[in-house]
Specification:
The complex is a heterodimer.
Chain A lengths: L1 E9 L6 E10 L4 E5 L6 H8 L7 E6 L2 E2 L4 H6 L1 E4 L11 H12 L3 H15 L14 H13 L5 E5 L7 H16 L3 E6 L2 H7 L2 E6 L2 E7 H5 L4 H18 L1
Parallel strand pairs in A: 3-8, 3-9, 6-7, 7-8
Antiparallel strand pairs in A: 1-2, 1-4, 4-5, 9-10
Helix pairs in contact in A: 4-5
Chain B lengths: L1 H17 L6 H37 L5 H29 L4 H5 L5 H34 L5 H35 L3 H22 L2 H9 L1 H11 L1 H12 L2 H30 L20 H14 L2 H7 L1 H15 L4 H9 L6 H16 L16 H6 L4 H29 L6 H29 L7 H7 L4 H22 L5 H23 L2 H9 L4
Helix pairs in contact in B: 1-5, 2-5, 2-8, 3-5, 3-6, 3-7, 3-10, 5-6, 5-11, 6-7, 6-10, 6-11, 7-13, 8-9, 9-10, 10-11, 12-18, 13-20, 14-18, 15-16, 16-18, 16-19, 16-21, 18-19, 19-21, 19-22
Classes of the chains: A alpha/beta, B mainly alpha.
Chain lengths: 245, 543
């Protein structure tokens, strides 16, 4: 569903590589966790996958289509939820969702049904008449999730989706993510919360300084240790290597 | 602590004007120097302008000891201009600043936070009084054979004290606005009405501080002095203090400025925490599902941009004020007895073949005013932090940008059409070509302005503005559509006046100028769909 092949991103010609030769494959039915410290290159990678950020080298394919060459076709079958959902604060929640419905050309009866269902799941139905400006961070996050699901994408790309969510919404989102992938969808998401990654993900990738440290099935990466221990060992090993170099 | 807070506020103000928040040091210094030079140019320009307009009257007033009236009027104008320029700034920076709660959680006395906030309001309030009082002092000096060093000192002291008074009133009004907007759901409407009221007052005062008013001071010195003394006492004593270098009057004026300031500061510092942590008391709306209406992609984009426009009073005031000017000037030109155009039209009814000239004048006037509306000129910049939404959606740049172009035109075209109708009604039976031209030429100019706005903002606009208000106020690329429209409209008119008047009939020229504008519009519209535009859109936010 999502193929990242030798992806490299440099923000300036002579500057350092924000992400260096990253290759990952996310298949339908997989929840793929993307782990790393702040500044590791997670958001840069995620934005490139969504066609928001250009990249220097490599190729990113969504369902076999290049995000560079066929961006519109790719965007039609995927959805992106950023870590800090800066939504249109001047719109009410329902107007924002209706706007998204218009852009994706979702028939009104279908969008009404989906909005009712997803907004109820996320517990934001009552607030839909209010302007987004009055929403808390968590409510904006929930609205962004509802908006992302409206066109029933095949691939969900999420940047720290659990930040700001209350326990109930986080629980619902996790259940939804599992159900989404069980129905053939794929999810690629970044997180700092190793417990969530350990319990939820089928596969994970750990990145540091733009370089891939480990990837694969969660059991393979973890071995007999906890994910937290593995993550810290890998990151510290790289730090020592960097210092020695 | 207060010093640190004041320094941070000062840097914020400097950054606001120079647009440098985290730039390179050299670039920051350059922009600050540019800012100072522009400020000096503004002062010199104002001084020359006031001297040219009112110098003669001041020269006539001075021998009768009435110079104080000139200073008092300047003080009044400074006060109103300051209120207009800084009321919403004060509301944002004192009562609704996002870092108020963070600062309150630190070991900083609320009075120090408030002092730093009011300090920045004071600095912003300095702009209008410094420019206006300097221009006033310059005019008096030039027209009365110079003023003494002591008078200059008094002028400076009074300007600083007057700013204290304007800052005090600004803070009080901003507090009031803050209370009102917290209790209503129509925040934008309240802000818009207040902005329009302040602008109307400013316009009223500036249009009345002219030769007639100053001449009436001369003719009715006693009654006007009584009016100032009884109704505007602080301005009266300020005028007297500067004109007569009177220490006593200066002390009284100082008391008039310092006592209210201290009282307001005391009042606000006692209730600062309660004010800044107050929540909106407007009733929450509960959503009830209704059937949704779908729109085409372009219309959805247009509606989105229109919603943004109508939900930001600074956006409306800065980018849409041209619509109000266009309508206002048309009504003035068509109905006012003082209007030059109305006079020309009345004379034209008696001159044979004057019709085409009336069409030309009307169409050109409306086309010229089209350049004053710059809604699309910041329409890309106002996306700011929301840009990710559009970039993650399956939409081509052309669809997004046409939405921005249409959101401008949807507002500008009806005003243009109404104004064309008003002009048409004021002239005797124009022919079909004339009727078509008077509608088409201003519409073509509006399309030109809208398209140039979108394109210039796409290629030259900044995206890192923290808010819609900031983008609408500061986007320099808004000037490009204004300039392009003006140059093309005025340029074609000048070509006719200087080169073609003898050889081309006015009717043919008006049609040709309209076709020229339409051709430019068509070129720009096709450019919106070009790969250069698509590439530029894709490059936005990549750095």
């Amino acid at each position: 569903m999502l193929q990242i092949n030798h992806y490299t991103k440099q923000y300036s010609v002579n500057g350092p590589k924000a992400v260096d030769d990253l290759t990952l494959h996310i298949r339908p039915g997989e929840i793929y966790g993307f782990l790393g410290h702040n500044g590791a290159g997670k958001t840069t990678t995620i934005k490139a996958c969504c066609g928001i950020l250009d990249f220097t080298e490599g190729e990113i394919l969504i369902n076999g289509m290049s995000i560079k060459k066929q961006p519109l076709e790719c965007k039609k079958i995927m959805a992106y939820i950023p870590d800090n959902p800066d939504l249109y604060e001047f719109m009410s929640g329902i107007r924002y969702l209706n706007f998204i419905g218009d852009v994706y050309g979702i028939p009104t009866d279908v969008r009404e049904k989906r909005i009712a269902e997803y907004a109820e799941d996320m517990g934001i139905t009552d607030a839909l008449a209010e302007k987004v400006a009055s929403y808390s961070h968590g409510m904006k996050q929930k609205l962004a999730i509802v908006a992302a699901l409206m066109h029933e994408p095949k691939l969900l790309i999420m940047d720290e989706p659990f930040v700001g969510l209350d326990p109930k919404a986080a629980f619902i989102l996790k259940k939804f993510m599992r159900r989404f992938c069980d129905n053939g969808g794929a999810i690629f998401f970044s997180t700092h919360v190793l417990d969530v990654a350990e319990k939820l993900c089928d596969k994970i990738a750990i990145i540091k300084g733009g370089k891939l440290l480990a990837d694969g099935d969660i059991e393979t990466v973890r071995g007999n240790e906890s994910l937290e221990e593995v993550f810290l060992e890998l990151v510290d090993d790289m730090k020592v290597e960097e210092e020695n170099a | 602590m207060l010093k640190i807070l004041l320094k941070s506020r000062l840097l914020a103000i400097a950054d606001q004007f120079s647009g440098q928040s985290k730039g390179k040091k050299a670039a920051t210094i350059t922009s600050h120097i540019t800012l100072i030079v522009l400020g000096l140019l503004l002062m010199v320009g104002a001084a020359v302008g006031v001297n040219a307009l009112l110098g003669g009257t001041v020269a006539a007033l001075a021998p009768q000891g009435l110079t104080w009236g000139f200073y008092a009027a300047a003080g009044g104008l400074s006060l109103i201009a300051s209120l207009f320029l800084t009321m919403f700034y004060a509301q944002g920076v004192v009562f609704e600043a996002k870092d108020n709660e963070m600062l309150l959680s630190m070991p900083i006395p609320p009075s120090a936070i408030l002092a730093s906030r009011i300090g920045s309001v004071y600095l912003m309030n300095l702009i209008a009084p410094v420019v206006i009082m300097f221009a006033t002092g310059y005019t008096v000096a030039v027209r009365t054979g110079g003023i003494s060093v002591l008078s200059v000192v008094f002028l400076v002291l009074c300007t600083l004290l007057l700013t204290l008074l304007t800052a005090t009133i600004t803070c009080l009004l901003a507090w009031l606005v803050s209370i009102i907007t917290r209790r209503t759901r129509k925040k934008t409407l309240v802000q818009l009405l207040l902005s329009l009221a302040a602008m109307g007052l400013l316009y009223f005062v500036t249009s009345n501080i002219n030769r007639d008013l100053l001449a009436s001071i001369k003719d009715n010195a006693v009654s006007i002095a009584d009016f100032f003394r009884s109704k505007l006492y602080p301005l009266y004593v300020m005028g007297q203090a500067i004109a007569e270098s009177s220490w006593l009057q200066l002390l009284i004026f100082a008391a008039c400025c310092i006592v209210p300031f201290v009282l307001v500061y005391f009042l606000l510092s006692k209730s600062f925490i309660r004010i800044v942590t107050a929540r909106s008391t407007a009733a929450k709306l509960k959503y009830e599902a209704t059937s949704l209406k779908s729109s085409s992609l372009v219309w959805a984009m247009t509606k989105k941009d229109l919603t943004r426009f109508f939900n930001s009073s600074p956006y409306m005031m800065n980018a849409g004020i041209g619509l109000l000017y266009t309508l206002g000037w048309t009504i003035f030109n068509v109905f006012s007895g003082n209007s030059v155009i109305k006079g020309l039209f009345e004379q034209g009814t008696t001159v044979p073949d004057a019709g085409p000239y009336m069409i030309l004048v009307s169409a050109y006037t409306l086309s010229f005013f089209a350049g004053l509306t710059t809604i699309s000129g910041c329409s890309v910049s106002v996306e700011g932090k929301n840009l990710w939404i559009l970039k993650s959606l399956p939409v081509r740049a052309k669809g997004i940008l046409i939405g921005k172009f249409l959101s401008h035109l949807v507002l500008a075209a009806p005003v243009s059409i109404i104004c064309s109708i008003l002009y048409l009604l004021s002239m005797p039976s124009p022919d079909v070509i004339g009727i078509v031209t008077i509608f088409l030429m201003p519409l073509a100019a509006n399309v030109l302005c809208a398209l140039t706005g979108v394109i210039s903002n796409l290629f030259f606009g900044k995206l890192n503005y923290p808010s819609i208000a900031k983008a609408a106020k500061s986007s320099a690329s808004s000037l490009i559509p204004m300039l392009v429209t003006t140059v093309l409209v005025v340029g074609t008119g000048a070509v006719y006046l200087f080169f073609l008047r003898e050889t081309v009939s006015v009717r043919i020229f008006t049609v040709a100028a309209t076709l020229f504008l339409l051709a430019v519009d068509a070129g720009l519209y096709f450019f919106l769909g070009s790969s250069a535009v698509q590439k530029r859109w894709e490059a936005l936010g990549n750095s």
